[in-house]
## 1
Amino acid sequence: MSVAAPTRLVRIAGNRPLQDADFRELVLETGELAAQPGQFVHLRIPGSRDPLLRRPFSVAGLGHGKLTIVYKRVGQLTSRLAALEPGAELDLFGPRGHGYRLDGPKTPLAFLVGGGYGAAPLLFLARRLHADGLAARIVLLVGARSAPQLLWRDRIEAEQSWLTAEFATEDGSFGEKGTVLDLLDARLPRPTTGVRVCACGPSPMLAALAAGFPNVPAEVAAEGHMGCGMGVCQGCVLPMRGQDGVGRYARVCHDGPVFDARAIDWPAVLEAKL
Amino acid sequence: MTPDLSVRVGPLALKTPVFVSSGTFGYASEYEGLVDLSAIGAIVVKSLTLDPREGNKPPRIAETPSGMLNSIGLQNVGVDAFIADKLPFLRRIPVPVLANVAGATLDEYEAVCRKLGDHQGLAGVEVNISCPNVKHGGMEFGTNPTAAEEVTRRCRKIVKGALVVKLSPNVTDIASIARAAEAGGADAVSLVNTFLGAAIDTATRRPKLSTVFGGLSGPAIRPLAVRCVWQVAGAVKIPIIGMGGIMTGEDAAEFILAGATAVSVGTASFLDPAAAVAVTDGLREYLARHRIASVKELVGAARG
């Protein structure tokens, strides 16, 4: 039995800081790849023992044989990553996991809601929804603390022919003053029939979305401390609501990362600071 | 000349000496299509308990220098669901499979072994007396020679295939526990399970794991594990399955040189699903490079 290697080395085509230099955009020469918005690639510096484990990065763009991710310099691996030049290689496993729903009936109105660098997969998602005719109207809402952290503002604004995009900053330095959920609340039609929400961002934001808009079907991309990235190690589990005993925990890497917001036990997520 | 990798571990005749460790390879079906399963020496599946277990609260893993802490808490489907849902796949693959059995009491170990004993498709049982992450996960059996011998003896009466006892390194004298397993009738001992450890997030000033303590694995523990294998190899005659941070063929050779007959790949499978195959290839190359005809010649060769 011959089996292709599950992991491979891919060359870095670009690795540049975004407007806020803590955020960086990394482009990998992956060749043609079937990745869905909401899926992740599990990356590692080749041969590294420290850091040891792979790290998941949401796919933020795909095309012409290249895959884009956005990352924030927060720890050891992302600091090492920031120092790598184009031409250097990374060890890639994936794409893995389940992304946003791309089947089913066309939605009259899709709101894509991103907080911080959580907005990364949403432009990719918007393009897929548009290309596949899965939403009659697509509204992308991006929020951040302050204007420099608004991810890909120029690029998103350039897509306004088919995409409605609006921004919110907590300090009011660009767009509406407030959170991205304040903006969603202001723009959401009532009744909310025919509306679909797809969100990505920090857990407190996703929890607030689930609590504040309980009647709107929302798919959210969750984060987890992953080990294997393929459902084996049971490390990245997320507490789910309304079930006892076995099955109470779902694996972010394998059952997600995209979940129905209502299925997640948000108080337990926030208590565990996941 | 291709070096001979075949070994015997008790009643098991294995094509290669490279196992995959319990808890790091799921129930193997997850790896179908990703890994050539037939290239693996033997597969030890995730720990089984009598009833399903939901496991510990997250966060369950934390990365540490060249290693990881885990506190999964024996999350598993339970022995009945294993037999109904997982065993049919395992029966189809051309690799010996060992079920890993954990329990809180002697009765539970016996009950799980008895349930498994009625079914084809298993080459044997690995008795987990070393889980550090649950209150009654068997580690009390793994830290006391009398209890270790008793649980081994009870399982031995039930298990017809290979009986392996997995040892905890969280003891003062691991050799005494290994001798107890041998006296109880084990065909082999596997070591080591994870070392108890902890990590604290200095930003939040809280432990990184919900349970505070977890089991440390990965290359960080390799020298500790090699030391344990050396000690146990001097104490028992039954074969040793050595493990702890093996990432390459040379890492595997180190354990074999210390006295292990076989080795097992654990955490490395999380980095590379095909790590066990890479370790096997690396070990074969190592033997060829050093003109060693059979891996059996390497067992304990560093002991002089």
Note: Chain B has a mean pLDDT of 95.
## 2
Amino acid sequence: MELVVTGNTVRDLRVDRGLSQAQLAEAMQVSRQTINSIEVGRYTPSLGLAIALARYFGTSVEEMFHVQER
Amino acid sequence: MSKSARARLVHWSTPTVSLVFGVVYLVAAWASGRPWLGVAMLAVMLAFGGGVLLAARRSETVRGLLDRRDERIVGIDLRAAAASGLAIILAVIGGAVVELARGHSGAPYTWLAAIGGVVYLAAVVVQRARS
């Protein structure tokens, strides 16, 4: 079974908390560009970073990243 | 060692390696009786190391390439290194073919290709065992 990431709620969660991309990047110890790439779906983070994001926003990886079976 | 201390150390590795190679070039050129060539090569390496450090102040990408904390930029670096390696392999194979066609042994290109092949196989074996 191959799963493809079709979207995510990172931008919504970040904006809801009033955070800038730079602030979230600082918290995740990645660059602002990486946060932007994740938000627009250009980059799928590693499992470690996905879990770190989910924990930061108090949600789960599956709720944050939408997948579809190919 | 803390994560930020490690990142600081890694951040300085490229400029430090530039400095070390610059000094090695200087010593090698000096030993062959061409001190000014050595000085020029050291200056080029120092300019490169300094340029990278300055660029890191302005560019997130360069900063990420230096401190290697950002997984996306580390991935970009790996793919860029693979593309660079592929270009070198093609150049080496081309050089070997030209040398063989000229009636020579193909050296040093054949040796470089052999080193590349052996290192690739060793890397596959090591990575397979580690992952």
Note: The helical segments of chain B are 3-11, 13-31, 35-58, 60-67, 71-101, 109-130.
